[in-house]
From TrEMBL:
It holds the Pfam family Asp_Arg_Hydrox. Residues 29-182 form the Aspartyl/asparaginy/proline hydroxylase domain. It comes from Winogradskya humida. InterPro entries: Asp/Arg/Pro-Hydrxlase (IPR007803), IPNS-like_sf (IPR027443). SUPFAM superfamilies: Clavaminate synthase-like (SSF51197). This is Aspartyl/asparaginy/proline hydroxylase domain-containing protein. It comes from the Bacteria.
Length: 280
């Protein structure tokens, strides 16, 4: 197998490294993120394994625990943002028309499963910005068969309407400021990104048939013993190890249950694939 040097791997089109941030700004953001937030909310349970938590900084209610994303053309600061002056300054300085802003904490061993975003919203052009505040090398985004570590010190852009997932394999916790914004001149000016630093992106290998067969066999054995969650997780995690076709991990789970003559479970995972990837 030919190994591509990490430094030669371009970012996928869905991701861009944009504005640099001053180290003093990053330190202020990190201090606030680690000391101010309390009572994180676990939402979107079907999309994760339980280690992803959020709090809102901008929304239409002012309640930081209101974290279910929806269209919000006139957001206002939440009670949490009012206690975080560095976050306020950054949001104001970016100048984009914000729809929603939140802090997202991804704990060690946590996964956000492969999915698309914005499918439940109307078809207004909107974009997502990430500002990593606390991270580690084992925390990365997967999109298009490429894993991307969003490094601290940059504003990043993600196109979340493409299938993607996130993991933090070993910790410590990753904390990002996530800003959903509408398309406007300020966003387009910001979106003139420069080159990513070497090491930000790495192409994942294609899985061999033997690897897939072995993982399916292991998962099937777990399901036969009644460990459905462990079986499903073993197959879902393939997305973070190999370059899989869109929805392939969900297909493997459905096929596993079909092979066990558990037709209701197979159909449930076919339906879940459609919901997660916006195919319904």
């Amino acid at each position: 197998m030919t190994v591509i040097p990490v430094a030669e791997v371009a970012l996928p089109a869905e991701v861009a490294a944009l504005r640099h941030l001053e180290s003093s700004t990053v330190e202020r953001l990190r201090h606030e993120a680690l000391t101010v937030p309390r009572n994180w909310v676990t939402e979107y349970g079907d999309y994760q394994n339980g280690g992803w938590h959020t709090l809102s900084l901008m929304n239409d209610t002012g309640d930081p625990r209101d974290v279910t994303i929806r269209d919000c053309p006139r957001p206002r600061p939440t009670a949490l943002l009012e206690r975080m002056p560095a976050m306020q300054e950054l949001l104001a300085g970016l100048g984009v028309r914000c729809m929603w802003a939140r802090l997202a904490r991804l704990d060690h061993g946590a996964f956000l499963w492969e999915h698309r975003d914005y499918g439940e919203l109307d078809e207004v052009e909107r974009h997502r910005l990430h500002v990593p505040v606390v991270t580690n090398p084992s925390a990365y985004l997967v999109v298009g068969g490429t894993k991307v570590h969003m490094s601290v010190g940059r504003v990043w852009r993600l196109t979340p309407t493409s299938p993607h997932g996130v993991c933090n394999r070993f910790g410590p916790s990753r904390i990002h400021l996530i800003i959903d914004c509408y398309a406007d001149a300020a966003f387009h000016d910001l979106n003139q990104g420069d080159a990513a630093a070497a090491g930000d992106a790495a192409r994942m290998p294609e899985p061999s048939q033997s690897v897939l067969d072995e993982t399916v066999t292991t998962a099937t054995g777990l399901a036969e013993l009644g460990y459905d969650h462990a079986a499903e997780t073993a197959l879902l995690e393939l997305f973070y190890q190999y370059a899989l076709a869109e929805g392939r991990a969900y297909d493997l789970i459905a096929d596993m249950y079909a092979g066990l003559h558990r037709d209701d479970d197979a159909e449930r995972w076919r339906s879940k694939k459609n919901v997660m990837l916006g195919l319904a």
